[in-house]
Design brief:
elongated, two-stranded antiparallel sheet, transmembrane, 11 helices, Palmitoyltrfase_DHHC, protein-cysteine S-palmitoyltransferase activity, single chain
Length: about 290
């Protein structure tokens, strides 16, 4: 079966109340923290490093643009099983496909049904609450790059905010525990100003995001390097491990070495998401190609 073109989802808004809540918070926090860092923290912290400070706005814009663009990419990209290939009867080319009772159709291998999205997802990994959609074959690249740039961004924020708070907040007294651990109580009790407590709150958010994103990115990089998705991990399946380099191409595409720079850079995926080679089939094909090339 030939390649299937990447398409945009016709309805990309979240379908579940929890998805909606997290989706809205994400849309609010990303630009809020960016403008806070660039217009409040940056002028205060980096004023004493004139050479380095000239680079930060450019890098900041680059990171912010990639975070937003990859988030949009993972949200709007349709990674569901194409309706035109579904069938209630098993076709000759689909001997390995399995039957989905929810879709009332045979669906490709490595495709599983999502109750929230109400469809089967090609190479489904998990349902992403932040995007209100599933991460699968066609949007895995955007998801991994979203995490990567979010990690870089939050790491910068934590470093800058630490220096910023040292200048703004008195951290030498025992009350610092209340100021950082309970910012609302510290403000209401008069220990700190409202502005400083808002700075502290954003600092806590950045730390929480840094820890969460680090754990998520490490987990997904590890399973991607093994050619797995979350379902494969739960059943200890390494059947589709094609080697680290090829596994990277399965996520980032054939132009993986440049695909990280920006989501709009074309990087075609090796598979169409409907058919998959096992590691044994892949090795045999590579051996045949090697013999033909001699």
């Amino acid at each position: 079966m030939g390649a299937f073109p990447i398409r945009a989802r016709s309805k990309f808004w979240p379908k579940h109340p929890l998805d909606w809540g997290i989706f809205i918070v994400t849309l609010f926090l990303i630009p809020t923290i960016y403008f806070y860092e660039m217009f409040t923290v940056y002028p205060t912290v980096w004023v004493f490093c004139p050479n380095f400070s000239k680079v930060i706005p450019v890098l900041g814009l680059f990171i912010f643009t990639n975070i937003v663009a990859n988030f949009v990419g993972l949200v709007v990209t349709d990674t569901g099983v194409p309706k035109e290939v579904m069938s209630c009867t098993k076709l000759p080319h689909s001997s390995k496909w399995h039957y989905c009772e929810m879709c009332v159709s045979y669906v490709p291998i490595r495709s599983w049904h999502c109750k929230v999205c109400k469809t089967c997802i090609l190479k489904r990994d998990h349902h992403c609450l932040f995007g209100g959609c599933c991460i699968g074959h066609f949007n895995a690249r955007f998801f991994v790059m979203f995490l990567l740039y979010l990690l870089i961004g939050t790491l910068y924020c934590v470093v800058s905010d630490t220096m910023f708070l040292i200048e703004k907040v008195d951290l030498s007294t025992p009350s610092v525990v209340l100021k950082i651990g309970f910012p609302a109580f510290a403000y209401l009790s008069g220990l700190e100003t409202l502005a400083n407590e808002c700075y502290i709150l954003l600092y806590i958010i950045n730390w929480a995001a840094l820890v969460f994103v680090t754990v998520m990115l490490i987990y997904h990089v590890r399973i991607n390097l093994k050619g797995q998705v979350t379902h494969d991990v739960t059943v200890s399946n390494l059947e589709y491990d094609l080697g680290k380099l090829q596994n990277v191409k399965e996520v980032l595409g054939n132009r993986w070495y440049i695909a990280w720079a920006f989501p709009l850079i074309s990087s075609p995926l090796p598979h169409n998401g409907l058919e998959w080679e096992t590691s044994n089939e892949w090795n045999l094909r590579c051996e045949r190609d090697s013999v033909k090339g001699k």
